[in-house]
Amino acid sequence: MNRLKCSIGSIEFNNPIFTASGTFGYGNDLPEFVDMSRLGAIVTKSITYEPRVGNPPPRVVETPSGMLNSIGLANVGIRIFIKDIIPLYENIDTKIIVNIAGSTNGEYIKVLKELESVSTDIVGYEINISCPNVEFGGMELGVDAKLSNKLITELRKHTEKLLFVKLTPNVTDITIIAKAVEDAGADAISAINTVVGMGIDIGKRKPTIYKTYAGLSGPAIKPIALAMIHKISKVVSIPIIGIGGIVNYKNVIEFLLAGATAVQIGTANFRNPNAGIVIIDELNKYLKENGISRYSELIGKLDLYE
Amino acid sequence: MIIDKSDIIENTQIAEGIWRMVFKSVEIADRYLGAGQFVSVLTDDNWEHPIRRPMSIADVNEDKISIIYKVFGSVTQALTKLKSKDYIDVLGPIGNTFNVDYDTFYPILIGGGIGLSPILNLSKCLVQKGISITTIIGAKTSKEHFLQHNPNKNMFLSTDDGTIGINGTVIDALNIVLKGVKNPKIFACGPEPMLFSIQKILEEKSIPAQFSVESYMACGVGFCQGCVIPKKQNNEYYLVCKDGPVFEANEVKFE
Questions:
Q1: Mind telling me how many Å the CA of B130 is from chain A's nearest CA?
Q2: Strand intervals (E) in chain B
Q3: Active-site annotation holds for A131
Q4: pLDDT at residue A36, as a whole number
């Protein structure tokens, strides 16, 4: 019995444990000890139309129970991605979701159309409207419900594949954005991207990250993520993919109870590239021991005080 | 590369704030390619410190692997508490090696601060091959040194305060050493300002060199894209974990 079978839109995943964009490369070039076929899905690092070299160092630094990063969407660009990386996906069973980023609506659309024009095993796209570390596009889009709706409406016209939209927590009310992208035809909402943060080195009197402001991830942001997912779940009917500081199966159950249908593992992959696989095994064991025949029975089953 | 919960054999202080840990890992030793490679360690099971700490391999003797580390903060402080028979979670080996494929050069090895770790490893490899070398190790003060200053045996120590060896930095020592050798090639590891200074001297004198560079790093496997160093040739970056940590000195740019 597969207790972990997970459905989003028309696609059935082996389990609800995915890897988060930017924390697992493109899914190629993995350490030898990682059996990626075990994962529910891999979400690639963000792809833009042109290659991007990313931001100057320092790009990453540890913080209490978390880390700050400002990578700046370093990626190979859509042409090299299609030429060199997409063919590698033919030989693997794992479901691939391509994360797309852009500076303008036109760039997102161009990247998606390029991907649609080649026959691929990609099951869907995750639209990154929430990167805190680039100057144009990214987060400024994701804080505006009208702009978000317009972009997703446009992208929806060009694909029948899964369309996830990744939201930023750096907004006054995330539910407004969530509703706007649901109305535009998104199949699922991925939440949350990193929380804007900053570190200071008092010796150097400099920010700890070159670009001053950076994205905070890891267990430090889990309470923020849970609250946002719970709030989103009250206003949308499409599935939510929970992201934010998940490091073990207990954290996954928290996200499921809060209303997530699946989760993505991010920062934990940096510590152990097998983190997702360990979590799948732990979760299966928990379900078995507690006589739960489908993990989905836990979704949204939070027992509130009032 | 593998993650191995390795048994600690030894963990001792060897100088002020400097410790050596020896752990046993058949898995990592089997995959080890040579001096320059590093491992990344986790000190505890909680998530207060989520990120591994990269550390250069100082020696591999059969299945026993040595690292030398400096106590910087609470993670390295916690590392000093581990004892023989405890285990440590180690990811490795990571990265490339120094390229010692040469016949004509005279190797000068330079280690600054905790950068001495891969330099001692390389030194042992070269000596075992019967190659004569000169080694320069720099520290702030004599208490941070655990080796002997012995110019007759081509081992030079430097200290910023002059308490042992050459009074000054490794650069002062290098300038002395360079006067006495022909066809030198430098192998260096240490903080960025040190490598930057060496790079400038070498460019003036057209001396080839390889640098093992340090960087902030979240994963060590190429996922995080955090450990970048600018390329000299253009405005792109190398990843220290995948493209390095050893680079030709004329490939990288220090800012």
A1: 35
A2: 2-15, 18-24, 38-42, 53-61, 64-70, 87-94, 106-112, 134-139, 155-159, 166-167, 184-189, 209-212, 228-230, 237-239, 246-248
A3: yes
A4: 92
On chain B, the residues whose CB falls within 8 A of the CB of A23 are 223-224
Region of poorest pLDDT, from A124-133, A230-239, B11-20, B149-158: A124-133
Is pLDDT above 60 for A137? no
* Cβ neighbours of residue A193 closer than 8 Å, sequence gap 6 or more: A128, A130, A131, A132, A139, A142, A166, A167, A168, A169, A215, A243
Domains along chain B with CATH numbers? 2-94 (2.40.30.10), 106-248 (3.40.50.80)
Tell me the sheet residues that pair with A195. Answer: A216
Please report the domains of chain A, with CATH numbers, ordered by start residue.
6-298 (3.20.20.70)
pLDDT tens per residue, range B71-123: 988 999 999 999 998 999 999 999 999 998 766 899 999 999 999 999 999 99
From chain A, pick out residues whose CB is under 8 angstroms from the CB of B42: 271
In this complex, is the C-beta atom of B17 within 8 Å of any C-beta atom belonging to chain A?
A: no
What integer pLDDT is reported at residue B103 of this predicted model? 67
